[in-house]
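EI: anyone free to look at a 368-residue chain?
SC: sure, send it
EI:
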Amino acid sequence: MKKYFSCCCPSLIPSRETARFYLLFVLIALYMLAGAAVFSSLERPAELQAHLLWESRLQDFRHEHNISYEDLKSLLHHYEEARTAGIRNEQGRALWDIPGAFYFVGTVVSTIGFGVTAPSTLTGKVLLVFYGLLGCSSTILFFNLFLERVITLLSFLIFWCHRRRTGHSGLEDSDGNRNEEWKPSVYQVTLILFVAVLLVACGAASLYSAMEGWTYLESLYFCFVAFSTVGFGDFVSGQREHHEDTRAYQVGNCLLMLLGVCCTYSLFNAISVIIKQGLNWMLRTLAWMYSGDCNYRLQLRPLFKLCFSDSEPPICHCEDNTPHRQQVQAVSSSGHSMVWRSCVPSAIGKCLCDKSKVETVCNRNIDR
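SC: here you go
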């Protein structure tokens, strides 16, 4: 892409990596705007309806129990503070015993962050900053090492299946040359990872639906939110009171979280490779369109030269960023004056007009 713009302004030409970064930034911004428009159209009416329903219930409660609006607001404010500390209407399991604290640090280092449990003391908040800094970095390293081993295993399995299907033994062929080693496509790896994530999510959703009392679709929604480390906190597993007595479910919940996050992280990385290939294709397409437009304008340049042949000879910009005046030679043919402009031979570099192929008649003897 860079060679198409090397003659215009070399100091402003971005590298391929920089151009891909800018293009990805623009596409993400457009993607977020489109998502905001879609979700706003879907969720905004429900939000307004919930506000109206809540205000109606507040008014009915005030009139029924003869409570002032200020007292009711104060009570609700205290309840919000209690929810931050982990207090719920329904009795739940202990949040800060050893299993509950282990579940909390698991959501921290995995960057899920449901928000159901959060430190309330100042010392705990300060400690969480340094604890999360080291823990999140270590977990990301673990995810990367897991991804390397998953990709190696999948590549080996795909290569083995390919050799079994094609019957290649890896021996030398009849020409004495070794068979070219076949490599799996990123699309095949992505498809296998997608199937693996789908199987883990479906199995986990069945367990959560039975243990948490959610519908199957709600369980699948929770699996995606948790495995992708988004962690909204509207659905959180293992928070009911009777879950304290089901140690097997707690262990299974942690293992499913770990397996789901690792597989989803690997899938995201494989998809990012495909997105990178798409960005490269878009950059090549834009460069091809720009080069075609430049060639088209260069082909039209002689027509403009015919129309403005009496004007001052323009300046030819060469790759050495040094402007040179063009030499003008006039050729008379059929009563018209044709102007031929060429760069000074001493100019170092290649002119903008080197891409165009314009046939001139300056050195030909034409019989009138």
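EI: Residues 96 and 316 are 76 Å apart (CA to CA).
SC: 👍
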